[in-house]
Amino acid sequence: MHWKIIGHTDNGVQDVRPLSDNLIFGTGDREKNIVVYIKGDDAPELEETYTVSLVSVDGGGDLDPAAENITFKIRSV
Q1: 3 state DSSP class of 66
Q2: Pairing relation of β-strands 20-22 and 16-17?
Q3: Distance, C-alpha 27 to centroid of its chain
Q4: What pLDDT shows up at residue 16?
Q5: How far apart, in Å, are the Cα atoms of 61 and each of 2, 18, 45, 53, 64?
Q6: DSSP per-residue letters across 33-59
Q7: Where are the domains of the chain?
Q8: Reduced to 3 states, what is the DSSP secondary structure of residue 65?
Q9: pLDDT for 22-77, tens place per residue?
Q10: Rounded to whole angstroms, how far apart are CA atoms 8 and 51?
Q11: How high is the pLDDT of residue 62?
Q12: Residues facing residue 50 across a β-bridge
């Protein structure tokens, strides 16, 4: 499954990495984690919003259009 992140940029620089990647499901796998790293910056921001979009599936799987996006927020504490 290929996924990508759509989100906030500061002067064209994304605050998270990676911006896209692939998840490989083996036989019997029902869950996988998407791990992103947050890049610190100099701009004071209390909250940023990102969307993870499931782009495509190879190998016989299907994407549910109702569940292909999830939005998450990162808050400064």
Answers
A1: helix
A2: unpaired
A3: 23
A4: 80
A5: 12, 23, 38, 16, 10
A6: ----EEPP-SS--SEEEEEEEEEE--S
A7: 2-75
A8: helix
A9: 999 888 888 899 888 877 766 666 778 888 898 888 887 787 877 888 888 877 66
A10: 9
A11: 80
A12: 7, 72
d(CA 25, CA 65): 19
At 5, list the tokens. Answer: 């992140």
Average pLDDT over residues 4-33: 80
Measured between alpha carbons, how far is 54 from 4 in angstroms, rounded to an integer?
7
More confident residue, 14 or 26: 26
Peptide bond into 44 cis (omega under 30): no
Closest CA to 3 of 44, 46, 63, 66: 63
4 — pLDDT class (breaks 50, 70, 90): very high
